[in-house]
User: Which sequence fits this backbone?
């Protein structure tokens, strides 16, 4: 009986997600694959069709089909009243979206990159994050701020900063950092359904990458819990905690480490605020060594917070100092070779893991 | 009210700055007001009012400025706008801008350049018309479409090309890139990726000029700043804040709007409640001028007046140059939303062909002389590419340099000495 009900649900949902399914037919391989771009697009599509209060706002989201083509096809499907092309006025349209959220609508605001969110940060922090508290629960702000975050390729200092740590310090905000398509779909759906302001940090270089996904992910009610990290690879010698693109690098580093006899456990943080302290600590209690990886500037970063929480809760279990890998402490240079040096690479993760296992001198 | 104020203030000038004759504009512009007012689609605008708006504003000489210029041209007496030397200088600068940008496109597709590259094809008249009137000490602030502004101001083509290739011989040692061209020597203050970001910076540079004159008593300091930005920027809050303060403090700045009608894929008409940007000047107490930005001579006339005003200490001016970019927003832009008819319309008004025609018709230069200039520029650009190709990439140690002006900014290392003195600190990957 349950099987029939589930089948009916799948049929209904498959009608809604036909675009996603038809695109999947193009990837004609045995394992189903989906790019992060398609995952985000399908999540937005499904949430917009499920709830008419959800609307999109941002620069070039409509007619241009999205600056990175994430919102492709949505203008044609939902019309200009729900997919709004804005002038170049971050502070203005972010404020407008927050105001709309005060009154119960569910805006999804796209920043062309999160660097531009600095022009609107007053509204993200002061109008959105703090409102529920200041109004003692009277005003909740069910808004999502999404866009690419972190370094891309050769885009210079003003387009390459990672804002995870900045937003994660602020109480009242939830900060999510998906890695693969499953994360992208599940977390974006969860974010849109969430009654609180969510900062959804994507990564431009991951948009085109294809990941295998299960049928469960394609279901239109698929949602990932906010605040839970995922163990991408189980291991027993060292824990590597990372988010966004660095999870991919960490997995590659784990493969290299395996050849040297080091079995690394890779945690995909998924949620920077709230940080899944229990998963990280459980993992450290098992492996006794920790390496944190991030692309952002090192000082006061996510790695620092993870290190602090591990030291607070699992100090006795640590067999080695926590190794912190971050981007170089300089604004992102333009020259290609300097840019490569300013961002962590797989070799850096391998070296740090070996240091944590006392296998190599720095 | 505001228009009357500024018109009255400048009756002494023979040069009517603020076209109070805006009635001709208003009647000829009919905007398609679709059912959802501010959410009109580009397609609708294109088919109906846009063409009217387009032709009536641009093909005719609607604004007072161009009327004056036209009269001067039609007189048979030899009161030409420019001398031969000036004409050739302008032509050379226009061709340099065009050839350089075309070479950038080639190099990008060959993989020598990367990241975001925004080309200036079609807008050269604005850069040449304004910047060629400046002195070395005057400053220019631009946006990410800044290659040609840097070239016009005097930054060598070699330095700009090397910067684009990410080599250490670039004007910013390869650290800035396409969008961040800085030059202390030529007073090019950038190169900003965020639109609207350059405007307050330019206003600050103008403030410095005034400060030097009044507080530091350098009586002959009459440096002017030019801020270049686009139509999309004119909806940004920073623009209005700076118009207010510049007029309030009478700063020697000219705000030059390069209105090319498109902000990536967003048409100016879809994004702005009142698309007449020059009208925003008088609202803040400064003259607002509209000029045909595809004609370098008209731009130059307006620029002379605006820069002159600033130098004399009479305050800021807002100049809206109607221009067009022949290529997409950047080299990654598929440029699907712009109407081919619109592109053809502007391609026919190419500033380089227009100036060429003017020079030849008025016997200021011969075809041969212009060809020589074109050849010379080709060689300059080729040489720039060769130089950039042969230049070395930045050394590993350059990664950590220039973060602070104070080299001790990186603090003290574990051995108790300043980190910057430790040769190992700037080598290798920073183990952070």
Assistant:
């Amino acid at each position: 009986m349950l099987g029939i009900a589930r089948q009916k649900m799948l049929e209904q949902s498959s009608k809604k997600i036909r675009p996603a399914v038809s695109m999947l037919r193009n990837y004609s391989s045995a394992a189903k694959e989906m790019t992060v771009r398609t995952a985000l697009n399908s999540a937005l599509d499904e949430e917009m069709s499920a709830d008419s209060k959800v609307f999109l706002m941002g620069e070039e989201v409509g007619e241009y089909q999205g600056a990175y083509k994430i919102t492709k096809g949505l203008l044609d499907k939902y019309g200009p009243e729900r997919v709004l092309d804005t002038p170049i006025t971050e502070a203005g349209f972010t404020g407008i979206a927050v105001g709309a959220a005060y009154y119960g609508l569910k805006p999804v605001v796209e920043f062309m990159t999160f660097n531009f969110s600095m022009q609107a940060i007053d509204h993200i922090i002061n109008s959105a994050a703090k409102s529920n508290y200041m109004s003692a629960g009277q005003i909740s702000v069910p808004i999502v701020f999404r866009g690419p975050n972190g370094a891309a390729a050769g885009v210079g200092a003003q387009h390459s900063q990672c804002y995870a740590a900045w937003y994660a310090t602020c109480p009242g905000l939830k900060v999510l950092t998906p890695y693969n398509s499953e994360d992208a779909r599940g977390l974006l759906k969860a974010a849109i359904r969430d009654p609180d302001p969510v900062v959804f940090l994507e990564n431009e270089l991951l948009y085109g990458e294809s990941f295998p996904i299960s049928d469960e992910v394609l279901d239109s009610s698929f949602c990932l819990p906010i605040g839970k990290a995922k163990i991408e690879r189980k291991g027993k010698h060292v824990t590597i905690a990372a988010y966004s693109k660095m999870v991919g690098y960490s997995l590659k580093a784990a493969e290299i480490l395996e050849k040297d006899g080091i079995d690394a456990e890779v945690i995909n943080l998924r949620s920077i605020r709230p940080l899944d302290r229990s998963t990280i600590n459980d993992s450290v209690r098992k492996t006794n060594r920790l390496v944190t990886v991030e692309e952002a500037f090192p000082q006061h970063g996510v790695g620092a917070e993870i290190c602090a929480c591990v030291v607070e809760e699992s100090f006795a279990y640590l067999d080695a100092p926590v190794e912190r890998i971050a981007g170089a402490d300089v604004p992102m240079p333009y020259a290609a070779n300097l840019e490569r040096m300013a961002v962590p690479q797989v070799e850096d993760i391998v070296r740090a893991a070996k240091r944590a296992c006392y296998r190599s001198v720095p | 009210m505001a228009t009357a104020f500024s018109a009255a203030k400048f009756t002494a000038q023979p040069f009517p700055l603020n076209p109070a004759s805006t009635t001709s504009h208003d009647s000829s512009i009919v905007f398609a007001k679709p059912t959802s007012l501010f959410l009109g689609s580009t397609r609708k605008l294109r088919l109906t009012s846009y063409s009217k708006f387009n032709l009536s504003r641009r093909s005719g000489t609607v604004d007072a400025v161009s009327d004056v210029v036209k009269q001067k041209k039609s007189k048979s007496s030899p009161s030409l706008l420019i001398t031969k030397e000036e004409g050739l200088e302008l032509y050379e600068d226009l061709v340099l801008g065009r050839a350089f940008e075309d070479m950038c496109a080639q190099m990008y597709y060959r993989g020598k350049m990367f990241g975001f590259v925004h080309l200036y094809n079609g807008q050269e008249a604005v850069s040449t018309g304004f910047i060629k009137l400046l002195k070395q000490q005057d400053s220019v602030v631009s946006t990410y479409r800044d290659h040609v502004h840097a070239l016009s101001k005097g930054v060598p083509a070699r330095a700009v090309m090397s910067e684009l290739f990410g080599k250490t011989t670039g004007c910013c040692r390869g650290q800035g890139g396409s969008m961040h061209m800085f030059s202390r020597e030529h007073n090019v203050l950038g190169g900003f990726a965020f639109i609207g970001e350059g405007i307050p910076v330019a206003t600050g540079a103008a403030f410095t000029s005034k400060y030097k004159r009044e507080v530091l008593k350098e009586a002959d300091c009459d440096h002017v700043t030019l801020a270049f930005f686009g139509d999309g920027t004119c909806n940004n809050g920073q623009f209005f804040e700076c118009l207010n303060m510049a007029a309030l403090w009478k700063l020697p700045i000219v705000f030059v709007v390069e209105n090319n009608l498109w902000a990536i894929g967003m048409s100016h008409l879809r994004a702005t409640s009142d698309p007449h940007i020059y009208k925003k000047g008088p609202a803040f107490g400064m003259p607002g001028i509209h000029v045909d930005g595809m004609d370098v001579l008209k731009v130059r006339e307006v620029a002379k007046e605006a820069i002159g005003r600033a130098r004399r200490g009479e305050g800021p001016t807002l100049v809206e140059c109607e221009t067009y970019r022949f290529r997409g927003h950047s080299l990654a832009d598929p440029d699907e939303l712009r109407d081919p008819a619109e592109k053809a319309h502007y391609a026919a008004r190419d500033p380089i062909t227009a100036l060429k025609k003017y020079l030849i018709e008025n016997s200021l230069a011969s075809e041969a002389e212009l060809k020589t200039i074109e050849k010379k520029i080709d060689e300059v650009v080729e040489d720039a590419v060769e130089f950039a190709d042969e230049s070395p990439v930045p050394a590993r140690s350059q990664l950590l340099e220039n973060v602070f002006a104070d080299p001790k900014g990186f603090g003290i290392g574990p051995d108790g000495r300043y980190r910057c003195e430790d040769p190992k600190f700037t080598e290798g990957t920073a183990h952070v």
Q: What stands out?
A: Chain A touches chain B at residues 59-60, 63-64, 67, 80-81, 84-89, 91-92, 115-116, 119, 152-159, 298, 324-331, 333-338, 341-342, 348, 362 (CB under 8 Å). Chain A is about 40% helix and 15% strand.
